[in-house]
Amino acid sequence: MKADLVDPRDIRWEDDTGTFRVRFWRRLSDIADSGWECAEYRVMETPFVEIQDWVRSTLQDTPYTMAALYAEVHVDDSGMGLVHIEGSNPVGH
């Protein structure tokens, strides 16, 4: 890990809720290496802790067994990207 002391005034904007992506994963069958199915959601206008609660609840109440959370980020002219925050991605993307 690398941690540097920063000046908090160097950011141009901050968003209390942000836009996030959640990927839910489940195996296609009980056979090893059968592949994975993914359902991806964009979640907006919601505090992060509520999104975490929703993910936990969804994993308990559906056949999905894994989830990964990402922050949606727009960087000037380079377009939109995702920053992985937590969770697992079984296909490694």
Explained architecture:
This protein has 93 residues and is α+β, with helices and mostly antiparallel strands. Helices cover 15% and strands 38% of the residues. It has one helix and four strands. The chain has a four-stranded antiparallel beta sheet with strand order 2-1-3-4, covered by helices on one side. The protein is elongated and about 50 Å long. The mean pLDDT is 89.
Offer a quick outline of the entry.
The chain is an alpha+beta fold and 93 residues long. It has one helix and four strands. Strands 2-1-3-4 form a four-stranded antiparallel beta sheet, covered by helices on one side.
Beta-strand content: 35-45%
SSE arrangement, N to C: EEHEE
N-to-C CA distance: 22 Å
Strand-pairing-aware structural class: alpha+beta
| Largest beta-sheet details | 4 strands, antiparallel
Topology diagram in text:
Elements: E1 19-27, E2 36-44, H1 48-61, E3 66-74, E4 80-87
Antiparallel strand pairs: 1-2, 1-3, 3-4
Question: Which labels suit this protein?
Answer:
four-stranded antiparallel sheet; alpha+beta; 93 residues
